[in-house]
Design goal:
alpha/beta, 13% strand, Dna Topoisomerase Vi A Subunit, Chain: A, domain 2, four-stranded parallel beta sheet, Helicase, Ruva Protein, domain 3, 2 domains, 6 strands
Length: 199
């Protein structure tokens, strides 16, 4: 069955969301049109305003309504420690731990030759320019523990030739509360390789 052009356009637009397939997009579209037109209007207004007003922080490149995001504007944070992440969602994840008080830098993805994403497509040049100021003393490479994330971390580490900057990588290992028999071999190998002394 084919829908009217405007309904087809709405369904197609909803499919750009992650995890939304054709059937889910249809259900969303019909729900908004049949049961919650006011909600659809609020979504449209909020989305339009967000697209117009939200850009990137000029320092860390996370999403922000102001030139400097609230984290970069916070003078109590340690500017000597810089944590490199792939996406603004990763910043949120680290912030929710409440255990990091340094600054962030968002790359905007990871290296992926298969997808045609190289160093020029990420903000690696801006990161290196920031490191050249000499303010950063520790660079934490917190890209995802995937093949692409590891490659990105190694690529960035290879670009840094300043001995005054300590380059570290986030640890990978067994999740808290996890049982070893259910942990995959790669994760367990990382956990063993990254072990630390207790005393």
């Amino acid at each position: 069955m084919s829908f009217s052009p405007l309904i087809e356009q709405l369904i197609s637009a909803l499919r750009c969301l992650p995890g939304v397939g054709p059937k889910s997009a249809q259900r969303m579209a019909f729900h908004l049109l049949e049961r919650d037109r006011a909600g659809a209007g609020r979504i449209a207004d909020a989305l339009g305003l967000a697209i117009e007003k939200i850009g990137r922080c000029s320092s860390c490149r996370t999403l922000s309504e102001t030139d400097l995001c609230r984290l970069c504007s916070d003078e109590s944070r340690d500017s000597r420690v810089l944590c490199v992440l792939e996406t603004p969602m990763d910043v949120l994840a680290v912030e929710q731990t409440g255990s990091f008080s340094g600054h962030y830098f968002v790359l905007g993805g990871h290296l992926s030759p298969i997808d045609g994403i190289g160093p020029a497509d990420l903000a690696i040049d801006r990161l290196l320019t920031r490191l050249a100021t000499g303010e950063v003393k520790e660079l934490i490479l917190a890209t995802n523990p995937t093949v692409e994330g590891e490659a990105t971390a190694h690529f960035i580490a290879a670009q840094i030739d300043d001995d005054a900057i300590k380059v570290t990588r986030i640890a990978h290992g067994v999740p808290v509360g996890g049982e070893l028999e259910y942990v995959d071999g790669g994760t367990l190998a990382h956990a063993l390789a990254g072990r630390r002394t207790l005393s």
